[in-house]
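User: Can you help me understand a structure? I only have the sequence.
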Amino acid sequence: MRQALGRSLLNDRTRTKSTAFSREERDALGLRGLLPYNVSDLETQKMRVLENMRRKAFDIERYIFLTALQERNQTLFYRTLIDHIEEIMPLIYTPTVGQACKEFAHIFRKPQGFYITPEDSGHIASMLDNWPENDIRVIVITDGQRILGLGDLGANGMGIPIGKLALYVACAGIQPHQCLPVMLDVGTENAELREDPLYLGYPHPRIGGEKYDSLVAEFVDAVQMRFPKALIQFEDFQTPNAYRLLNTYRDQVLSFNDDIQGTAAVALAGVYASTRISHKKFEDLKIMFLGAGSAATGIADLICAALQQKGLSYDEARARLWFVDVEGLVVGSRTDLMPHNLPYAHDHSEMDFVSAIQTIQPDVLIGATGAPGTFTEEVIRTMADINERPTIFALSNPTSSAECTAEQAYQWSKGTAIFASGSPFDPVTFNDKVHRPAQGNNAYIFPGIGLGAVVADATTISENMFLAAAEALAAEVTDQDIEAGAIYPKLPEIREVSAKIAERVADTALREGVAQVEYAAGYTQAIRDYMYDPVY
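Assistant: Let's start by predicting it. Here is the structure, written out as tokens:
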């Protein structure tokens, strides 16, 4: 039994210490002879991980190596990720996760997460009993139809829930065993994937309509029975489905859509912080969006609510928000608009993108197109002509889909741009000044939202929680960040940022009557006591 325990410990990713087991532990646990002589502490093991990771020639190889480490030794994986998050987050999430999703079936090693297909209709509740953990608190689910800016990747999109939940753990200390990645594999319109002999997903065209909605409803109901305290995060759904599911479930169960609401909060926080550089009042800003999908309209909806908090009426707030899509300026005379675009279809003549900038003269330009290079030199120069410090958000992921690069934004604006992007860019030196591009990554928001909801045992996620999260994030931007032109905190500070956001979210939940757990001394200590700290 002792020998079996030893072998079991070595192969259990959640309990293993690998070469860090002490001599006393090796004797007591039946490990003597199963490990090399030297006892390595966690710091030494991290050195070995980093050395092996860095010798890989390509980022996708580093992704595969880190995924294998996560499966082999969970503590070591998260300790290394937390302590080197600036280097490793781009490898386990954007931009590398985009390539990993495209190649998911080809680099597949070991099953992770939970898969649901149309053939599972009527069986989802019993299937969830197969999951080995009983106290799931955070679920990230995708149907793979709109993965980053890469389109329909079907079941290959499972890389997104896996990556998002790794960030929940690393950035906010959600307990790893309380996380569940889910792939709603309802087929794919990507014929190349369906014909790939290595593709692992449901090899049929996508289902839709009532069958699709029924499958989602069955999943949500099954979660309420099996994991009643779980937060459901909808991720990378195509715009019509994203809005319909959000509107269906936002007031029924603990859930949110990260592409709509998480992106909105992180963008709002960046806009708040940008005013410390531009010296303009938030309530006076005019904001233009390139792209009119779920991410862009989600941002606009939250900014509209924030402007109303500042005293503007709904119509006054809406009048400050303008959209441009592939057909040009979104205006009331157009007949091709979707329902979520209609509130921002103003009474104005139709015109192209550059003409709209020249005419409306926005203070802030936000790109959420998934189309690279759409912030051209003419666009950036036009923004710089009408603003002393133009604010430019190129939010599309991965890096290859960004509307412009940091270097382009600074060069074309002659160093005046306040720049933020969805994926990371290196610092840029222009006219002897070093500019630090800010990364407006949703990882600044969704982990803190989840942490606050878990600790408060919230029953729903409200718009006010996202407004509070945006304010909390903006407040964490230091004077040193602002001096460097950055409107988000540095990534190594993200766990503290998430804790501050969680406090505001939990307090909001309590104030709104949706928190089921209250602490006499407040949530501060409870949040820190809950947060997972990967140590042996």
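Now, to help you interpret it: The chain has four domains: 1-40, 96-253, 261-441, 444-515. The chain is about 45% helix and 10% strand. Let me know which part you'd like to focus on.
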